[in-house]
Amino acid sequence: MRTGDLVVQRPEGLYCPPGDFYIDPWRPVARAVITHAHADHARVGHGHYLAAREAEGVLRARLGEITLQTLAYGERITHHGVGLSLHPAGHVLGSAQVRLEHGGQVWVASGDYKVAPDRTCAPFEPVRCDVFITESTFGLPIYRWSPDDELFDGINDWWSRNVLAGRASVLGCYSFGKAQRILSGIDPSIAPVIVHGAVEPLNRTYRAAGVALPDTQLVSEVKDKADFKRALVLCPPSAIASPWMRRFADAQAAFASGWMQLRGARRRGGYDRGFVLSDHADWPGLMQAIRATGAQRVIVTHGSVPVMVRFLREQGLEAGSFDTEYGGDAVEADETPAAGEGA
């Protein structure tokens, strides 16, 4: 790092020296700008939180009583001479990129992001800058996502076949972001949808934010026990190996994650089916986002960092890295099938 950099790495997290605040710090600090509410980016213990307005419900639901200031996307404030604004990251509800302007420089810290369409959150907004801090969770050329229509057709077909066979379709997915994206894309006319107790509070938060989701039931709300043999069941993957699953008898179990593109990941997880679905950008998405910023300097965090840095340097960009404590999909999900994903 250089003298005058707008973001540097400290033991507490990524720090803006002229603004005297942190971005997604992993240790308690006085002032924290939060890109989104996943557990590896939004932690308890900070004195003051700043986040996008759309993230308020989820942050309060997950962190409890916090001192929270929110901004509309694109709204600009100035703190200690640093211009700051938040812009959609397309990752989950309320996710934001942080734009910083000071001393003639513009930096953007993207947090986690994806460029693919998503009915459940504001779409990714390219922000022009001099320096772009990018994630690299799926920063290898092998990771290329299929269009959502193909993906959800596959989920609906799998579910329909299981209904005909008289068995439930249990789909493991992260409770915040992934579950709501699945709900937004499935065909709820096939059969009832049951969700785990970890999922439903987030569904309520999404609905309160105006996101349209189909009706869902908790296990305790199911009146017709026959539904246990035909429903689509969304739950954290940890629940699939727990006593909670017994009521679904010979259910088919699947996992929705970007890691399902890895050969052998489904087998190692013991799933009957894997669906390649991620809330992070794939390799083409990462390259598209970086190009759209116009940045000549790129700093890579969490994921396939050496590969991304080497590739970007080969493209003529100045590339380096920050060593962070973000967990990609692993920390987010408590459900890692392989190398870690909230994918």
UniProtKB/TrEMBL annotation:
Leading EC class: hydrolase
InterPro entries according to UniProt: MBL, RibonucZ/Hydroxyglut_hydro, Xnuc_lig_assoc
Entry keywords, A to Z: Exonuclease, Hydrolase, Ligase, Nuclease
Ranges for region Disordered: 323-343
EC numbers, comma separated: 3.1.-.-
Xref: SUPFAM superfamilies: Metallo-hydrolase/oxidoreductase (SSF56281)
Gene Ontology molecular function: any one: ligase activity
NCBIfam families per record: Xnuc_lig_assoc
Entry protein name: Ligase-associated DNA damage response exonuclease
Source organism per UniProt: Ramlibacter aquaticus
